[in-house]
Design goal:
The complex is a heterodimer of chains A (about 130) and B (about 475). With about 130 residues, chain A is mainly α. In chain A, about 35% of the residues lie in helices and about 0% in strands. In chain A, helix 3 (about 55-70) packs across helix 4. Chain B is built from 16 helices and 13 strands. In chain B, strand 12 (about 420-430) and strand 13 (about 435-440) form a beta hairpin. Classes of the chains: A mainly alpha (about 130), B alpha/beta (about 475).
Chain lengths: ~130, ~475
Amino acid sequence: MKEKDGKTLSRREFAQRAALLSATATLTSAQAVLPAGVNEASLQVAGSGPKLTEAGQAEADARYQQIIALYGNRFDDAQKSELKRMCAELQPSLESIRHYTLRNGDAPALYLKPLVEREKKAPPNMNSAPKHS
Amino acid sequence: MLKEATLFAPVSELAKQIEAKTLSPVELTESYLARSEKFGSKLNAYARLLPDQALEQAHAAEKEIRRGHYRGPLHGIPYAAKDLLSVKGTPTTWGAKPFADQVFDYNATVIDHLRNTGAILLGKAAMIELAGGMGYKFASASLQGETKNPWNMSCWTCGSSSGSGAIVAAGLAGFAIGTETWGSIVCPSAYCGVSGFRPTYGRVSRYGAMALAYSMDKIGPMARSAEDCARIFAAIAGHDFLDRSTLPIDKAAFTYSPASDLKGRTLRVGWLTNAWKQYDPGIARIMELTHKILQKRFASTRDAKLPEGPWEDTANVILSSEAGSAFGELIRSGKVSELADPLGRIGGYVQQTISGSDFNTALRIREILQGKMTELFDSYDVLATASQPIAATPLAMDLTAPELTFADPLGAIGNLCGLPALSVPCGFTEKKLPIGLQFVGRAGDDAAVLQAGRVFQQATDWHRHHPPIS
């Protein structure tokens, strides 16, 4: 049961996963919220964390810094270290869904209604090129 | 005190005796209460017992039945409800210290439905704090502490419906109600050796239930057989104008007919070959035997594969984003630090940084996945595989340890798409820990899943085993 390949977030059950997740885009850059005096290099997750690209690491760092900027005084050093790890462990998961091929017309399941007796045939393709631009 | 054989009997058998007036609801309730008082605290199975209320309901049921007004198969049957379902005037703690004194002035719809059937609420079942919504690292992530597995008290029940699983397995009530957002009925049912049913999303009202992930939470029964699950599901399913997410009246209601279900419809079973990367050695052997039983008992059992894609990542983003919102005030106020689990105290902060863009991407992937699963169910009525690739884990184990990190695409898919699932016992490891078999069906086809479980349980007796608890 030791799969951990970066594409598949591991764990059988949501419980352990929920806390490992987060995302980014409200941030512009790590630098924007990095407190004065904090060395970016110090944010690198040691040892056991996932191997991230430079951009991925920057994004994970930014998430961490966003939390610290808002709530930093609530955490001790051990918790900060754990938060840093969680922010990094999230990154492969986020990149995985971002890399999934979606077309502009692929709409969100805004309000989940299971497909009870849904037509088997797909609806007309809304993603084909428009006839009039 | 009634004999163990009665206390471990399925609802279907208890109901016959109650209807025939050979079993007293009062005596049954008193016996379950006594047993719950004796073993409940040892197992940390209950958040709270409600003896006065239960006995009052039991006396009322007995009086009604004596007068000839028998309401149906749940009349006079004691049960426990996970402590995230509100019961008027009674603390509903959500398993979490910040909500330890929380009292609602109304009942959850599920509680009202069960009350209308004459079922007797024995107590509130212990649970993982906030149903694990902030994440957790240890089995002790609960206001009640770690719930112990009746099959082996040094092992965990799994979560988050921990108490519900322990209560049914230990014969402390006739059945229990659990909830699942991702794995919280299927996993405890497997670890505890009980039959647990996760209905299609939207078939059971969540009014009065703690929200964790609005588009993924489901409420379902945990009991001693698939047939019991069907009976209980029939009692709690239905449209509810108080819960906008429930399906329309004709799609939400479920009618259970014990005579007709197993006739008339032959089920095509898809035996999943890619649901789990690997099994623990003892489990692989059990699943081979289980596969043979399915091949013998079902008209068609063929190998099937789940579609490949980032389903777990998608489910995680949606679930975490919704949880970060559901418990936003708890996180912002800092009261989340009162949670028992070290991971739970900080996980919400990370959840709250999920972007709208990533959340929407996940929702778009969900829509595509729903289409893929609809196609798969054109070839199969139910998919089958092990409920978990491992048996119950030691109580003190770090749940984020590498040996517990395995992919669960079926759990992600089933909960993302709101598919019904049933876990039934299918054997034991050499250490006498239960193993579960899982059936998953098309959204709305809960009947197929329950029927598959009944067919399997007609051919096996694993669901009739119970732990030698003392």
